[in-house]
């Protein structure tokens, strides 16, 4: 069996719970066809897209790390093409799975820590800076 990373983009008007249910649904399809999902499905949240996809500017992002035969992957992709909730998907074959959370989850955790630190410190750093020889 080959090792893959599979990213799914779902419509932004879905709730976060519905987006996670979509990932769980595809996880069960993989398992029914003889594959397995390594770790838990990762829900990355709603993110802005670089360009419009099917008239959407944002999407729910999620990722599955797969160890599955090609037939299982073909079935998941077939169901994603049919689904109205999935606006785009991408499957990449990798040599090994990275340990721990993906880079996207690490970034989200880092951003949340930075935001909490700002809230604790207050908005002291946002005060306007006076220039010494500036125009008035």
Description:
The protein has 136 residues and is of the alpha+beta class. It has one domain (2-120): Ribosomal protein S6/Translation elongation factor EF1B (Alpha-Beta Plaits). It contains 3 helices and 5 strands. The protein has helices spanning 16-32, 70-82, 103-121, and strands at residues 2-10, 36-37, 42-53, 56-68, 86-93. Strands 1, 2, 3, 4 and 5 form a 5-stranded antiparallel sheet that branches. It is globular and about 55 Å long. 16% of the residues are buried.
Structure keywords:
single chain; 136 residues; alpha+beta; Alpha-Beta Plaits; 5-stranded antiparallel sheet; 3 helices; 5 strands
Short description:
The chain is an alpha+beta fold and 136 residues long.
Helix/strand layout:
Blueprint: E1 2-10, H1 16-32, E2 36-37, E3 42-53, E4 56-68, H2 70-82, E5 86-93, H3 103-121
Antiparallel strand pairs: 1-4, 1-5, 2-4, 3-4
């Amino acid at each position: 069996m080959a090792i893959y990373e599979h990213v799914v983009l779902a419509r932004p008007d879905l709730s976060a719970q519905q987006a996670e249910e979509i990932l769980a649904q595809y996880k069960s399809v993989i398992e029914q066809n003889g594959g397995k999902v390594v770790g838990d499905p990762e829900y990355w949240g709603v993110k802005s897209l670089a360009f419009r996809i099917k008239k959407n500017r944002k999407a729910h992002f999620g990722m599955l790390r797969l160890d599955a035969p090609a037939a299982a992957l073909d079935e998941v992709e077939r169901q994603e093409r049919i689904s109205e909730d999935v606006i785009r998907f991408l499957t990449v074959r990798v040599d090994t799975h990275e340990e721990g959370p993906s880079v996207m989850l690490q970034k989200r955790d880092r951003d949340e820590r930075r935001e909490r630190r700002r809230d604790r410190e207050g908005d002291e750093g946002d005060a306007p800076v006076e220039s010494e020889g500036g125009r008035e």
